[in-house]
Inverse folding.
């Protein structure tokens, strides 16, 4: 049953042909069977899930059910969950049990969704492959020797492996769209400020944004609609009316203008990706859309700008992990400074330490203007590029990732090579725009390819409508991996 | 060796704790004296995932301050992170304002005691005032071999008020600090409690040969929490710097602490050890935007400020600049004075001033009471002043009546005068009778006076007053006695 659409599951729950407890049990069984191979979950909360499922069944019986009541879901381990381990993929927080729920977690709890567990991720969301997790790499269900992408790789793999129908993620430079692409599912990162960051452990505050994974755009719309809304506890949360993102799904694509940034279709893209993306664009034209070439001249500067701004913010955001109040503290130390050094050196992995060092450097006296201020200027230029391009089109389309999933260990020794994989996604975060990745086909080795859609601010419904119409005409999204 | 004439240059940074209900970025209480860590919520202890939300009350107080010193209120200011590691700084950074503070410019006009009983005017310009959060406290004493951390204070709102290096002596620095202290209480943004750390001064001190334009190298004395320590620390520091330079040394920029027990300052860290705080705009907080409407609303709610009130006291009541400044040293004193004048009439304003600043202030000081807790109310004091003005009692008797009011011996001056029979004798016949008696009993003094000894006259007046138990009108006694001896 959990392989059905959210709409069908909800209808079955209402019709009492299935119970929330049965759904949770099915999900837990899939996790039990598949997780040893995939390592998508850091924590499985069987007891909590069954209790929540029983409560959901009571609600359904009382006629008090919403569209997500009784639906099993997984949270990326970046979201704080009261009473359940929240590790952020790090040894630093390997023992951390949050005393409170993230805003997103409480919204979904109140909606009656049933959390079955917390998903694996790159440590502190820093990575593109899930290899930097303290709890071992997550494996791609399409080929377990390959990475699932990152940093929300656990959530993407869990949905792709049909362990849960939906999962949350966070996207700072592509961390929802990229793993969605590599795992052959749909993932959306909304406009910055629409999903509260309260309780979502910060990596780079000005870029971090919660997002949603599902197999289809329709289900993403359902999940995202339950995650967004103004939260007074997050000062960057936007105060505006939040319509249901699924309201526009049925709209035909005739007349849709799709912008194709020429910089995204230049060199760098693998043949697998190029072929699938071009076929998908042909499909869009068949559906009545037109394509137009646009330009994002500063897009090539997105990676350097991102790898200044994100580490700068991270170096400060991660200062609270000092071993004083919670988290890992070194067993032995000589004085305060030694306690800090040892606790942080032991608690943080190599990629996190690398970004803290880079961030500390770019904020240092004498370098701040040359790096941080400069990067902020680039950020504005990149946002202006998008604004200009989006005057000529309704949505921008291109590859989500330059390649299909690569092998575990293949790029982990060369961080710059891995950073370059974010080339199509980071600019969207720098501009704060919404972005979506949907399955567009498969490469010659049977690995999924994703197509990225980028829209103007608050056009999530349009992006989801676009992807939904594509998914009505194609079946890439309904193919399941065998692992 | 010829002695150089040294000029002292002082600038102050004052941390005022704002009297909001809750913290600057969380909803935890800031009340003083709670058990350790009970007033620290998830935001204050920097749990993973928590975010700051700015307390508008803190901003409003900053605006109030800016308007009261004639500063400009920045339409857009920015919170920045000041990064450093310390166990009582839970986030590993302090949220402060760096490049764009909320209050820019402004000035305080002071009356500085000149040490010879007078005072001179002095204007001290302000550089800026910015909002920031306080850190927690490290408790080193109660834990053997360990340090305790109390995060109750973490996140307490502070307004750091930075002056230009405009002060030229410790007396000026103290006068500035006192005026600022009075002002922040006047506009009700800070309780001014220095013992509890609500008002703390850092003094930047340097010296230079008089006439030299360039500033000398400064040292910053941290955390002075009384006016006396401020004075002592600066005086010691000035002498230390002059001695060092005159002995051929050079002042090195440093942060120093004042030890009240030894009366000395000692270096805490040198410039080389200075932190690189890696300031950058806090991405968790939007720029602070303050609309003109907000500023105007706050302006409309401001009480009459001490400078304006002092001018009014001088203009309408004919008080001296010194008296007017003294009476506006605190809002409570000014309010008491205004209430007293209101109850007895503007014609008695000068007498009221003398009583409020003189006997009342002295008595309160002795009893260590705040004027708001005065046992003699403004209305009672006004009643006393009225009886002096209409000659019912002399000044000498008035002091007795005041003491009786203080001790609660009667409801009003009138009741005490009546009950204790203190009414002044103004009947010339009665006074004459007393004088005659005194003259008869003091023939020796009369002779001495007639022989040209002026002092004898005063002795006779004294005898008359004594004989009337102080109730005879002294002016009439003088007049009649002169006539009789003349």
């Amino acid at each position: 049953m959990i392989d059905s659409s959210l709409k069908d599951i909800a209808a079955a729950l209402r019709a009492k042909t299935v119970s929330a407890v049965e759904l949770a049990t099915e999900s837990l069984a899939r996790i039990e069977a598949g997780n040893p191979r995939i390592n998508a979950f850091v924590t499985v909360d069987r007891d909590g899930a069954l209790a929540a499922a029983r409560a959901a069944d009571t609600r359904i019986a009382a006629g008090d059910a919403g569209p997500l009541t009784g639906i099993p879901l997984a949270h990326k381990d970046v979201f704080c969950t009261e009473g359940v381990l929240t590790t952020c993929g790090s040894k630093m927080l390997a023992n951390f049990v949050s005393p409170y729920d993230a805003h997103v977690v409480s919204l979904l709890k109140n909606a009656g969704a049933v959390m079955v567990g917390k998903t694996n991720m790159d440590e502190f969301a820093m990575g593109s492959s899930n290899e930097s997790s303290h709890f071992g790499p997550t494996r791609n269900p399409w080929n377990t020797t390959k990475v699932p992408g990152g940093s929300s790789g656990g959530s993407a793999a869990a949905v792709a492996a049909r362990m849960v129908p939906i999962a949350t993620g966070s996207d700072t430079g592509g961390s929802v769209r990229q793993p969605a692409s590599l795992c052959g599912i749909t993932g959306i990162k909304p406009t910055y400020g629409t999903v509260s960051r309260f309780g979502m452990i910060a990596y780079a505050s000005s870029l971090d944004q919660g997002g949603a994974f599902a197999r289809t755009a329709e289900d993403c719309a359902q999940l995202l609609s339950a995650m967004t809304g103004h939260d007074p506890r997050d000062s960057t949360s936007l105060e505006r009316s939040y319509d249901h993102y699924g309201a526009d799904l049925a709209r035909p694509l005739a007349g849709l203008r799709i912008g194709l940034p020429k910089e995204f279709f230049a060199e760098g893209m693998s043949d697998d990706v190029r072929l699938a993306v071009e076929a998908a664009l042909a499909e869009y034209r068949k559906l009545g859309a037109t394509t137009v070439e646009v330009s994002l001249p500063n897009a090539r500067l997105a990676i350097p700008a991102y790898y200044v701004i994100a580490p700068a913010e991270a170096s400060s955001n991660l200062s609270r992990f000092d071993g004083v109040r919670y988290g890992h503290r070194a067993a032995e130390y000589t004085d305060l400074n030694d306690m800090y050094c040892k606790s942080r050196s032991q608690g943080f992995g190599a990629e996190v330490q690398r970004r803290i060092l880079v961030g500390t450097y770019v904020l240092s006296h004498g370098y701040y203007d040359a790096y941080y201020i400069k990067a902020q200027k680039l950020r504005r230029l990149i946002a202006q590029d998008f604004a200009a391009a989006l005057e000529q089109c309704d949505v921008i389309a291109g590859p989500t990732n330059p390649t299909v999933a690569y092998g575990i260990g293949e790029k982990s020794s060369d961080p710059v090579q891995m950073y370059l994989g974010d080339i199509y996604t980071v600019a969207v975060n720098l501009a704060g725009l919404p972005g979506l990745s949907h399955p567009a086909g498969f490469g010659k080795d049977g690995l999924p390819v994703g197509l990225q859609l980028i829209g103007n601010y608050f056009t999530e419904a349009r992006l989801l409508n676009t992807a939904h119409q594509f998914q009505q005409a194609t079946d890439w999204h309904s193919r399941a991996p065998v692992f | 060796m010829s002695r150089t004439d040294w000029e002292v240059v002082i600038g102050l940074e004052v941390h005022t704790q704002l009297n909001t209900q809750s913290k600057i970025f969380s909803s935890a209480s800031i009340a003083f004296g709670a058990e350790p860590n009970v007033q620290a919520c998830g935001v204050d202890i920097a749990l993973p995932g928590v975010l700051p939300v700015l307390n508008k009350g803190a901003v409003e107080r900053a605006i109030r301050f800016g308007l009261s010193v004639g500063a400009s209120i920045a339409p857009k200011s920015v919170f920045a992170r000041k990064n450093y590691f310390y166990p009582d700084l839970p986030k590993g950074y302090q949220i402060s304002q760096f490049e764009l503070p909320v209050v820019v410019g402004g000035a305080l006009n002071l009356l500085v005691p000149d040490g010879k009983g007078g005072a001179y005017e002095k204007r001290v310009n302000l550089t800026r005032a910015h909002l920031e959060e306080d850190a927690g406290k490290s408790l080193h004493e109660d834990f053997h071999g360990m340090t305790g951390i109390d995060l109750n204070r973490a996140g307490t709102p502070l307004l750091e008020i930075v002056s230009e290096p405009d002060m030229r002596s410790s007396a000026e620095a103290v006068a500035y600090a006192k005026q600022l202290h009075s002002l922040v209480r006047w506009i009700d943004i800070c309780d001014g409690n220095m013992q509890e750390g609500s008002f703390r001064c850092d003094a930047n001190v340097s010296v230079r040969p008089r006439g030299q334009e360039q500033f000398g190298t400064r040292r910053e004395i941290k955390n002075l929490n009384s006016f006396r320590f401020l004075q002592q620390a600066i005086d010691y520091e000035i002498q230390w710097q002059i001695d060092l330079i005159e002995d051929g040394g050079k002042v090195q920029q440093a942060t120093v602490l004042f030890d009240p027990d030894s009366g000395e300052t000692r270096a805490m860290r040198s410039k080389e050890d200075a932190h690189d705080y890696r300031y950058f705009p806090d991405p968790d907080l939007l720029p602070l935007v303050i609309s003109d409407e907000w500023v105007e609303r706050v302006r409309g709610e401001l009480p009459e400020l001490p400078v304006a009130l002092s001018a009014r006291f001088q203009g309408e009541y004919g008080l001296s600049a010194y008296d007017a400044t003294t009476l506006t040293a605190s809002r409570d004193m000014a309010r008491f004075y205004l209430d007293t004048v209101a109850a007895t009439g503007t014609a008695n304003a000068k007498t009221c001033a003398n009583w409020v600043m003189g006997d009342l202030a002295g008595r309160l000081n002795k009893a260590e009471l705040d004027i708001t807790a005065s046992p003699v109310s403004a209305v009672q004091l006004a009643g006393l002043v009225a009886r002096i003005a209409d000659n019912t009692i002399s000044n000498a008797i008035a002091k007795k009546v005041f003491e009786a009011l203080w001790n609660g011996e009667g409801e009003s001056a009138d009741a005490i005068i009546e009950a204790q029979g203190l009414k002044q004798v103004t009947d010339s016949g009665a006074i004459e009778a007393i004088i005659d008696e005194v003259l008869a009993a003091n023939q020796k003094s009369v002779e001495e006076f007639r022989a040209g000894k002026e002092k004898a006259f005063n002795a006779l007046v004294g005898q008359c007053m004594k004989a009337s138990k102080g109730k005879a009108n002294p002016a009439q006694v003088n007049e009649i006695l002169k006539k009789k001896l003349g």
Summary: Chain B has three domains: 6-294, 304-420, 428-485.
